[in-house]
Amino acid sequence: MNIIDVSTASPYPVITGCGLLEETGEYIKHYVPRAETVAVITDDTVAALYGDRITASLRAAGLRVIRCVIPHGEASKTAAAYLEILQFLAQEQLTRSDAVVALGGGVVGDLAGFAAATYLRGIDYVQIPTTLLAQVDSSVGGKTAVDLPAGKNLAGAFYQPRLVLCDAETLRTLPAHVFADGCAEVIKYGILWDEDLFEHLRARGTDFDREYVIPRCIELKRDVVVEDEFDRGSRRLLNLGHTLAHAVEKLSDYRISHGNAVAMGIAAITRAAAEQGYCSRECAGRIEEILLRFGLPAGFEDSEVHIGINDIYESVLADKKRRGGRISLIIPREIGDCEIRTMSLEEMKVFLEAAL
Ligand code: NAD
Ligand code: GLY
Hints:
The chain is an alpha/beta fold. The protein is 46% helix and 21% strand. The chain folds into two domains: 2-173, Rossmann fold, CATH 3.40.50; 176-353, Dehydroquinate synthase-like, alpha domain (Up-down Bundle), CATH 1.20.1090. The chain has helices spanning 24-31, 44-60, 79-91, 106-118, 132-138, 176-193, 195-204, 210-227, 242-251, 258-275, 281-293, 309-317, 345-353; strands at residues 2-6, 12-17, 37-43, 64-70, 99-104, 124-129, 143-148, 151-158, 163-167, 326-334, 337-344. The longest helix has 18 residues, at 176-193. The protein is globular, with a radius of gyration of 20 Å. The model has no long low-confidence stretch (mean pLDDT 95). Residues 43, 45-46, 49, 72-74, 77, 104-108, 110, 130-131, 133-134, 137-138, 141, 143, 153, 170, 173-174, 178, 181, 258-259 line the site of nicotinamide-adenine-dinucleotide.
């Protein structure tokens, strides 16, 4: 077991280890001591795999358990699903001293987190991430959101959990393509801040050392979240590849998963950076090679959706990272070192045209 403390204004631990699900009840008793009822929000796939185990642990700790199960997948990250969860919490008379548990991947975490942030103007919640992506990224840092028809994550809140429990055993049931989605975010940390991590991943591929890689990624995320909790400065580096990724997700009606879209976005931005001399061709080659090694797309060429520069331009207009007529793109300089470059939308068009 490993504890990584996140010292945001409202601090909390991220606990990693094996067999933590069975101890959920005890952890919640300790970190959310006032809770009498726990509302477990999860999706149908995760409910079937882990719902009973977690319920048994919570009940054994003397807690009343209620459960809200949503259909799996990004299509559930909507305002409608969010309102349904709020209605459910209200009907079950959850009070301010009770707690929400988000059990699942990034979709459940973002959605349940947003419900917790706003129900009764905010009640405690615990993240129990069950995908690699959610363990290394979305469960840490308090970004919660739903998608709107106009774009991804357009309604949400910064709202930190009381506790994050990452049980490595849950990753065993992940389908390979969902695991690969998480690998895109893991590779992203290497490109942003840690060449040793990048090299370990390059050498080992999907057989990487999880006991080293998962806590290392969480530490890197913790450090940037503590430095810039509200995403006004260095935290924006985490958006490497994301402006393009969000466009791809929306244009594909969310058939292309977040992790795959992030891989495409990283590949494209790196290619554009190399074309224009911001990074070397060798650096771009290393990034392309590692994405392919993990079975991730290294560009838009084989994508089921055709992405043109105008599609991206339209999508960026609805991107929450836009500030008036300007957008910040994250550009690799070398492995372990990226920069935030703010440019006009017209400059962005010219910059990205090189990559498409
Ligand atoms: P997801 O939540 O849709 O999970 C992927 C699939 O895996 C789902 O079908 C789910 O039912 C299944 N699953 C989950 N755990 C499982 C397990 N242990 N065994 C078997 N199947 C399991 O997708 P995701 O990739 O976890 O998350 C993507 C979402 O996260 C996107 O909406 C993205 O925007 C968001 N995100 C948020 C942040 C943040 O900071 N809040 C960061 C990155 C991504
Ligand atoms: N994954 C983006 C962030 O947490 O800022």
